[in-house]
Design brief:
The chain has 138 residues and is of the alpha+beta class. The protein has one domain: Archease, Possible Chaperone, Chain: A, domain 1, CATH 3.55.10. It is 26% helix and 45% strand. The chain has a four-stranded antiparallel beta sheet with strand order 1-2-7-6, with helices on one face. The chain has a three-stranded antiparallel beta sheet with strand order 3-5-4, with helices on one face. Helix 1 packs parallel to helix 2. The longest helix is centred in the middle third of the chain and has 19 residues. The model has no long low-confidence stretch (mean pLDDT 93).
Length: 138
């Protein structure tokens, strides 16, 4: 069975998406992939640089916000573009991730993402599936 990782939804000014997963880790990975798609618009990013980071948040929404903001920081401050998530662990409102990507200067793209917002954000678990929703300010 083909499992949808994320989908984009209608939004008046910004970009809204939902991501899906069978675990909290999987849904966070799929949210990062959706953000990557917004930032790169389909450009294939090579896997050349490894990075590790750790973040925390008082709840799943704050953790998600901080996680996605980390990719904006890496893009702006370190010229890093995500290719894929190598590993992610979430426990007790802490997230440890190992990500792989490349130097953003190697690509022609316009990072029109200004910020992650709390507008309409949620992290839900229903039965054996997680769904998250995020609105990105562009």
């Amino acid at each position: 069975m083909l499992f949808m990782k994320f989908k984009f939804l209608e939004h008046t000014a910004d970009i809204k998406f939902q991501a899906f997963g069978k675990s909290l880790e999987e849904v966070f990975v799929n949210a990062a992939l959706a953000l990557k798609e917004i930032m790169t618009r389909g450009i294939k990013v090579k896997s050349r640089i490894n990075k590790k980071f750790e973040i925390s948040g008082k709840n799943n929404e704050r953790l998600l916000y901080n996680f996605l903001e980390e990719f904006l920081y890496l893009s702006d401050a370190e010229d890093f573009l995500l290719s894929k998530i190598k590993d992610i662990k979430i426990k007790n409102n802490k997230l440890i991730a190992e990500v792989i990507g490349d130097d953003a200067e190697s690509y022609k793209f316009s990072n029109n993402v200004k910020a992650i917002t709390y507008s309409e954000m949620f992290v839900k678990k229903e039965k054996d599936k997680y769904t998250i929703q995020v609105v990105v300010d562009v």
